[in-house]
Amino acid sequence: MKTITVLSRKGGAGKTTLAVNLALTAFLQGRKVVLADIDPQRSASDALRARREPGPILAEVTAGKLFMTKSNAMRDGVDYLFIDTPAMPEADVAQAVNIADLCLVAGRPSFLDLAPIVRSAEAVRRLGKDGMVVLNQAHTSRSDVAPTAFPEILEALRFCGLPLAPHGLRAREAFQTAMAHGLCVAELEPGGPAARDLHRLWTHVEGGLGALGGETPMRTALTA
Ligand SMILES: Nc1ncnc2c1ncn2[C@@H]1O[C@H](COP(=O)(O)OP(=O)(O)O)[C@@H](O)[C@H]1O
Ligand SMILES: [Mg+2]
């Protein structure tokens, strides 16, 4: 089992959108998936509850229960545990980072999002975790969010210590419409541009998880 934590110190960065859509993508590919929602706002839970079709198993928990959630998921033969986090408090997010195999730092490619991205990336590195920055809500016609569109932002991100995912998500209405029905954008608009972005991102993330190798032993002493 692999655990993927989505984080950002900024609200509205796209954590929930990423966590829900990636969890659904893995589920639709036949994986057994748990989505743990530790954000008291419960946005990811609201989205999955709006879903009529079968979907990922939802775990509405506090950060303190994550360790147990992960143990249970491993026992139950789950393939992927996704964790959607709040922007704060830092200690809760740290617990979610601590039990992750891979952390996705979500952020918009805008000047005001830069500092939160860098600080979230620092938190991941401080805890010795693997991660990548995923740009979300990019306003660009390019399918790869990385090149040339935002040179000064990309330049700054080069120094945040985490690699930039070569595929991000562009701003698409489909992400908002799909979320309201608990759907993956690929179910709402199969083959559409949002679905393509998401598929490319998931292929990259899953490839990165495969490269991490076998099961990561859980740390027994989690700091609060
Ligand atoms: N790629 C996207 N395209 C269009 N709207 C988006 C996209 N990503 C997020 N949103 C919208 O932006 C808002 C904030 O996203 P959300 O995932 O809730 O962020 P967070 O969980 O980080 O607070 C939501 O209304 C969501 O529907
Ligand atoms: Mg959220």
UniProtKB/TrEMBL annotation:
The record, for Pfam families, names: CbiA (PF01656)
Q: What range(s) does the CobQ/CobB/MinD/ParA nucleotide binding domain occupy?
A: 4-138
SUPFAM superfamilies for this protein: P-loop containing nucleoside triphosphate hydrolases (SSF52540)
Looking up Gene3D superfamilies in the UniProt record yields: P-loop containing nucleotide triphosphate hydrolases (3.40.50.300)
Which InterPro entries does this one have?
A: CobQ/CobB/MinD/ParA_Nub-bd_dom, DNA_Partitioning_ATPase, P-loop_NTPase
Q: Which residues cross the membrane?
A: none
Q: What is this protein called?
A: Chromosome partitioning protein
Q: Which organism is it from?
A: Caulobacter rhizosphaerae
Lineage of the organism: Bacteria, Pseudomonadati, Pseudomonadota, Alphaproteobacteria, Caulobacterales
